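Why do we care about 3D structure at all? Because function follows from shape, and shape follows, mostly, from sequence. That is the central idea of this module. The next example makes it concrete: a single protein chain, its amino acid sequence, and then its structure expressed as tokens.
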Amino acid sequence: MKTIAQQLKIKDFPFKIKDKEGNQIYYENSNGFWAKSEYDSAGNEIYQENSTGYWCRWEFDSAGNRIYYEASSGVIKDNRPKY
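And the structure:
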């Protein structure tokens, strides 16, 4: 499968895509390594994955504090309130 830069025949690296808020949602270098990110409405990065297969995700409370982290490596840090 071709990367975004390969599909678009990009020759100038690094290749970056930002969303309308200015958050970088895609990055690719000349070696074909890529990473993509997702953000919540407060601008917190909530998900990231890359071409190596690594991924991680975060959750934040209403004050912007990170309350949950999980990664493909098996690490989980859960500080969400327990009811």
